[in-house]
């Protein structure tokens, strides 16, 4: 099935790309979550609009991505969350929480879709998070989760 990506999907493509995927993947995952729309002949107008919006938000060059990476890796991110007695969190830390914490710590503005968690953060302590700035540049960021 041919689809038009509306958001960046790891391993598949960036917003505005027209890709061919299996029917079930598109029908059950990408389209319901808003990551893609079905490709039609009239959808070519949508592709141009999505690509224009992507150019506004994307980091254009590797040099620019490396500058932002250096700024990100110099930021100390602390997140205060509610937790139980054993150090387990009530819920988990989301990429949106991390993006907000980076901004409040004085770091650059990061889109929550660029924050990649290896596994859900459900305990107090130090955790490593990756922020994908460019297809070739990713920043490793230490996040300290503390009790509120």
Main features:
148 residues, 4-stranded mixed beta sheet, 32% strand, alpha+beta, 3-stranded antiparallel beta sheet
Radius of gyration: 18 Å
The oligomeric state is single chain
The backbone outline, from C-alpha atoms, is globular
Main sheet?
A: 4 strands, mixed
Which structural class fits the helix and strand makeup? alpha+beta
State the low-pLDDT regions, or none: none
β-sheet strand percentage: 25-35%
SSE series: EEHEHHEEHEEEE
Percent range of helical residues = 25-40%
Q: How many H/I helices?
A: 4
Number of strands: 9
Overall pLDDT metric: 87
Terminus-to-terminus distance: 47 Å
Side-by-side strand order of the widest sheet: 4-9-8-6
Family: Belongs to the bacterial ribosomal protein bL9 family.
Organism: Streptomyces lateritius
Domain Ribosomal protein L9: 13-40
Keywords: Ribonucleoprotein, Ribosomal protein, RNA-binding, rRNA-binding
Account of the protein in words:
Helices cover 30% and strands 32% of the residues. The strands form 3 sheets. A 4-stranded mixed β-sheet has the order 4-9-8-6. Strands 2-1-3 form a 3-stranded antiparallel β-sheet, with no helix packed on it. With 148 residues, it is an alpha+beta fold. It has helices at residues 23-30, 44-57, 62-73, 95-104, and strands at residues 2-5, 18-20, 36-38, 77-81, 88-93, 115-116, 121-123, 125-134, 137-147. Residues 13-40 form the Ribosomal protein L9 domain. This is Large ribosomal subunit protein bL9. Binds to the 23S rRNA.
């Amino acid at each position: 099935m041919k689809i038009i990506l509306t958001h960046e999907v790891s391993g598949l493509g960036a917003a505005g790309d027209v890709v061919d995927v299996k029917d079930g993947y598109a029908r059950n995952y990408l389209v319901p979550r808003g990551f893609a729309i079905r490709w039609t002949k009239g959808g070519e107008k949508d592709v141009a609009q999505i690509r224009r919006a992507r150019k506004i938000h994307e980091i254009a060059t590797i040099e620019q991505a490396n500058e932002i990476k250096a700024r990100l890796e110099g930021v100390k991110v602390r997140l205060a969350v509610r937790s139980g007695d054993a150090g387990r969190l009530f819920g988990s830390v989301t990429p949106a929480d991390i993006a907000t914490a980076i901004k409040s710590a004085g770091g650059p503005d990061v889109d929550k879709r660029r924050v990649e968690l290896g596994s859900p953060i459900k305990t107090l302590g130090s955790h490593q998070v990756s922020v994908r700035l460019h297809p070739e540049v990713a920043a490793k960021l230490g996040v300290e989760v503390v009790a509120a």
